[in-house]
Design a protein that fits this description.
- With 77 residues, this protein is α+β, with helices and mostly antiparallel strands.
- It is built from three helices and four strands, in the order E-H-E-H-E-E-H.
- The protein has a four-stranded mixed β-sheet with strand order 2-1-3-4.
- Strand 1, helix 1 and strand 2 form a beta-alpha-beta unit.
- The two termini are 12 Å apart.
- 29% of the residues are buried.
Length: 77
Amino acid sequence: MKIEILGTGCAKCKTLEEVAKQAVAKIGGFHSVTKVDDIQKIMDYGVMNTPGLVVDGVVKSTGKVLSVDEIINILQN
């Protein structure tokens, strides 16, 4: 599973990246968490509010920091 965190480096973006890594560690498996800070790539997803969470190319959340449990729920559904 490919998980992308969209954001330009703000505190919320960094927090979401850390929370996503914690969620992946908790559920196990082979999942990559990458940070996307290129404005054009973020806009290509249609995201106007960061941070954004993208799972396998599908935008799952924008504009807020999710909890570990919320991310696990997204990843498992």
